[in-house]
Amino acid sequence: KNQVEQSPQSLIILEGKNCTLQCNYTVSPFSNLRWYKQDTGRGPVSLTIMTFSENTKSNGRYTATLDADTKQSSLHITASQLSDSASYICVVSAPGANNLFFGTGTRLTVIP
Amino acid sequence: EPEVTQTPSHQVTQMGQEVILRCVPISNHLYFYWYRQILGQKVEFLVSFYNNEISEKSEIFDDQFSVERPDGSNFTLKIRSTKLEDSAMYFCASSEQGEDTGELFFGEGSRLTVL
After folding, report:
1. Chain B residues lying within 8 Å of A36, measured CB to CB
2. SS3 helix, strand, coil % of chain B, rounded to 5?
3. Using a CB-CB distance cutoff of 8 angstroms, which residues of chain B are in contact with residue A97?
4. Which residue of A has its CA nearest to B97?
5. SS3 B84
6. What's the pLDDT at B99?
7. If residue B105 lies in a helix (H) or strand (E), which one and from where to where?
8. How near does any CA of chain A get to the CA of B52, in Å?
9. Is the model's pLDDT at A103 over the cut of 70?
10. How confident is the model at residue B103 (pLDDT cuts 50, 70, 90)?
């Protein structure tokens, strides 16, 4: 069964600290893996999208890694800011239509 | 920067009433989608639309739901007779390429509350 599991479910960190969010998936075949940031009550916004051949991708203070062999991805946030408080959703795509599999997200809270 | 816009941002309706949610996708995009997110749960796919017809739909998208692209810019989701369990955030999205390879751009969402 195609599934995307994220951990932790929620995380609280101090402003300025780094953190790493995890995503494990069982989706096969695999097309790409995406990380989205979703502020409360808003639409998801794309952070990174990685294909099979990419094992790391950065977008500012966000760095995503992908290990397609172990079917794991992580999102590392450096020097967190209050505005990083949001849900971070891992989405794995398989080839074809209607083949996006969403994780339940990690709720990150950055406190001063 | 181009964006997907949705209206209304919040709609409250009585059970059994019809609701139409509206979306203006990014102008050069060819693929359009509706997703929903029940409070505290994951985003769920409803329907995809390409070349003026539905390309895929999920089990959630039953006969009570319909989509339309009435003109060159709007993309609407209609719920014919709302149920309590239709209360959710509804997101429209669009992409240049199909969702498996193309980047999805989501709107800000329409929150539907069914009483």
Report:
1. 106
2. 5, 50, 50
3. 48, 55-56, 98-100
4. A97
5. helix
6. 67
7. strand B105-106
8. 16
9. yes
10. confident
> Taking CB atoms and an 8 Å cutoff, what residues of chain B touch A93?
99-101
Total residues belonging to chain A: 112
pLDDT of residue A5: 96
- Do A100 and B45 make contact, defined as CB atoms within 8 angstroms? yes
The per-residue pLDDT for B73 is 85
d(CA B114, CA B88): 9
Put residue B63 in one of left, alpha, beta given phi > 0 → left and psi -120 to 50 → alpha.
alpha
Provide CB contacts within 8 A for A40, sequence distance 6+. Answer: A86, A87
SS3 readout for B11-56: EEECCCCCEEEEEECCCCCCEEEEEEECCCCCCEEEEEEECCEEEE
Q: What is the DSSP string of A42-100?
A: S--EEEEEEETT--EEEETTEEEEEETTTTEEEEEE-S--GGG-EEEEEEEE-SSSS-E
